[in-house]
Each structure stands twice: as structure tokens, then as C-alpha cells.
Amino acid sequence: MIPASFDYSAPETLSEALQLLGDEEAKVLAGGQSLIPMLKLRLAQPARLVDLDRIPDLNFIAEDNGTIRIGAMTTHHQVESSDLLAENCPLLAKTAAHIGDVQVRNRGTIGGSVAHADPAADYPAALLALEAQVKLVSASGERVVALDEFLVDALTTSLEDGEILTEVHVPVEQAGVATAYRTLIQPASGFAIVGAAVRLGVSNGNVSFVRVALTGVGSKPYRASAVEQALEGGPANAEAFAAAAAHAAEDVDVLSDIHASAAYRASLAAVQTRRALEDAAGSA
Amino acid sequence: MDISVTVNGERFERPVEPRRLLVHFLREDLGLTGTHIGCETTVCGACTVMLEGRSVKSCTVLAVQADGKEITTIEGMASNGELHAVQEAFWNEHGLQCGFCTPGMIMSVDQLLNDNPSPTKDEIRHGIEGNLCRCTGYQHIVNAVEAAAKAKAGV
């Protein structure tokens, strides 16, 4: 399990990193918890790795005018244990606690996970429910795009050559909105077979706000609009949750693999969505 | 490239290829074979070491990423001939069967007790989820963690 040879650079500034990326067949190294396994299996054989770990401005969690900005190199452990996030964006903190295991959370980063775009990663469910945005920087400028547009397909994003994902933006959670993340994991890998993230606001017994997003079901994580539409304005009770959750995999080309057939996965999507809605309602 | 790493308080400077995994660097370049290689696929946790005070799977870290940083391996846990509290508890509670997973298990337990000095049984099982014991001797490991937590608290 030895990677093919590559050159390695650990720049100390973002501009240096961008320059190195422009040069050749280079790949960005964040926490390495997905990339290094791929290097070892020789599924990835870049000529150069550009390690972002020595760039100090990429590891932070800061709130500004209702938006929380998270630096790309912030580890899952830092997200999971952040007081700022526990108070202002609990869904993201509790989702981070589900990722992999302690050692993986100590190394893996939010920027690396989002840019890798594994269809079964935990973060995208929470981030889509939060309507997150990502900041992409290149030598010629920067742009901020919605995560929904950033994620294109399995392991495929709209990140262009020479661009680095530097920040993830999520909103400060609204007052009165409760959240939950439910997942069934594949025990050996810790990856979600299906994960469902929910944000739910209830007013006078009716659903006043709802966001639902799923990971692991299709080739890319998605907002379950049909579930949201079924709930919006209606009663917030167990029957309504079950009826709405039945739409969780609607219009999705559901994945099938050795862990779960498409039919089972679609059923899991409904079950995890219903449970996440119940969890959120219970904590509202 | 040349890297400089502090391992168990001692500084080492060595040339390494960028593709060298930290676990191979520790075992083969520094001769610290207490850190085991189990699966080499980020699953089993046998290769767990502390990097800058946080537990990591050293098969999934490049040696060059550790340049300028501090590492603690199982060899650095005992001091002055005295076992570390976690090692002592594994000894007393027989928290092992074949022992292959034990070095990584002890590093993960050290991380767990640093983060949460008095974990419940559930929290212990959650805290060591990144370490596999193929003998399935988890019950005694959990007992050892409880004993280590008590010993560290002076109970």
C-alpha cells in the first residue's frame, strides 16, 4: 500500500498554493483522509501534492452578520467541538460528530470533504439543508457558489482547474428552528448508507419552516423538495412526517451496491427522513 | 526531502520520499515498531499515534506532513520505567487477547480520556470506534478504560 511517486509542496500562503496548482498535474492535499487512501490504491496519481496545512488563514470558524464562515482546513473535530457552532449552527456540529471515527475527525477537513464530493459523505446533507455556499479562489479572482451548484455528481464538482475551495458559509440558525441528522452507517467504513438532515420550525402545531436533505441515496446529495413541499404549512405530527418522508427518494436515481439494493436504500431514505423529522420535532 | 520530527520528545532529522507514510517512517526509519500496521486502509486503528496531541491513523498521514511537528507513539507512553495509567489499566484488567491492536487502542484511549476524563460505557465504545480488535475482546478493553479513568482521577 505505497503510493506512486509525487512531488510535494507545503506553501505558507494561498497565493503560493495557487501558483503551484497552475504549474502541472497537481492536486490539493487537505486532511488527506480520502486522498491518501486513493493514492495508496493508486486511484489517484498526481504529479504534485500541494498541502494546504501550513497556510494559517484557512483554519478558522467566524461569525459575521448572520453568516458563519468556516475555513477549508478546519477539521471535523474542530467543527464538532466548536462552541460557536454548537450555539449558532448545531446541525453542522452534530453532523461532524457522525463522520468516520475520532482519528479521521482529527485529520479530515470540511474543505477537503466538500471538494472530494463523496456521494455518501455526511457533511453535504447538513450543508444542503443549511443552503450553504462555498468560496472558491483562483489566481484571477474568487467566486461564491451555492453548494447545490458546486456538487455536480459523484466525486465531481464545479471546481475549475487552478481553483481552491477556501471557505464554507452557513447561516446562523433561525430562532425556533430545531435540527436533526439521522444516518444508518456501514459499520466497517463508517460511511453513511443513507443520511438525512432536517431543519424544522413549528408554529401553532403547523410546519412553518422545513429543509430536508439526504446523502448516500443517489450519486449526489440533494435537497428533498418533495418532502419539504408536502410538509410546508401542514400539521407537524407523526402521520404528516411519515406521509411526507415517503417522498424522500422521489425522482432520484437510487444507488445500488453490496451494502444496500436500490429498493432498500429508497426505503431507508424514507425511514431516516421520518426519524430525523421526529427527532427535530421532539427537540423543538 | 529532509524532515525534522520530534518523536517521544526526541528530535529526528531524516530524508524521506514525499510518498512515505508516517507509519513506515516510524517503524522502518526510526525503528519504532510498537506502532503496528494492521489494515493499512484507515480502518483498523492499529497504527494510531498522537500528532500534535491528537490521535491519527499513521497509515493515512504522509511523513512529510509531520515535518516540524510532535509525535507520541506507544514507546513514549511509559516514563522512567513506570507504565502510563492506561497501560497499567490494560495490564490489570487484561484488556487484550493477542495484543496486536493494543498499542493503537492505548493511544485512542489516551485521546478519549484527555477529551472526556469520566466517560460512560457508551462513550467509551464510541471513543474507540476507530480501533478494531479482531479477537473481539472489547469487554475487557472497556473495563480497562473504566479502570484507567478511575486511576487517573485518583479514585
How would you portray this structure in words?
The complex is a heterodimer of chains A (284) and B (155). With 284 residues, chain A is an alpha+beta fold. Chain A contains 12 helices and 14 strands. In chain A, helix 10 (225-231) runs antiparallel to helix 11 (238-245) and helix 11 (238-245) runs antiparallel to helix 12 (262-283). Chain A is globular. Chain B contains 5 helices and 5 strands. The longest helix of chain B is centred in the C-terminal third of the chain and has 16 residues, at 138-153. In chain B, helix 2 crosses helix 5. Chain B has helices spanning 22-29, 85-93, 102-115, 121-127, 138-153; strands spanning 2-7, 10-15, 48-51, 54-57, 70-72. In chain B, strands 2-1-5-3-4 form a 5-stranded mixed beta sheet, covered by helices on one side. Chain A binds chain B through residues 1-8, 10, 29, 32-33, 36-37, 39-40, 49, 51, 53, 77, 100-104, 106-107, 188-190, and chain B through 1, 17-19, 21, 24, 40-43, 45, 48, 51, 54-57, 59-62, 64-65, 67, 108, 111-112, 127, 129-130.
Shape summary of chain A: globular
Number of helices of chain A: 12
Radius of gyration of chain A, in angstroms, nearest whole number: 19 Å
Largest beta sheet of chain A: what is the strand line-up?
A: 4-5-10-6-7
Report the biggest beta sheet of chain A as strand number plus sense, adding barrel if it closes. Answer: 5 strands, antiparallel
The parts of chain A where pLDDT drops under 50 for at least 5 residues are none
The CATH top-level class label of the largest domain in chain A: Alpha Beta
Number of strands of chain A: 14
Largest interface: A-B, 30 and 30 residues
Give the topology string of chain B: H per helix, E per strand: EEHEEEHHHH
One letter per element, helices H and strands E, the order of chain A comes to EHEHEEEHHHHHHEEHEEEEEEEHHH
What is the radius of gyration of chain B?
A: 15 Å
Strand order of the largest sheet of chain B: 2-1-5-3-4
Number of strands of chain B: 5
Distance between the termini of chain A: 48 Å
**Number of domains as seen in the coordinates of chain A:** 3
CATH fold topology of the largest domain in chain B: Ubiquitin-like (UB roll)
Helix fraction bin of chain A: 25-40%
The chain-level mean pLDDT of chain B equals 97
CATH topology of the largest domain in chain A: Uridine Diphospho-n-acetylenolpyruvylglucosamine Reductase, domain 3
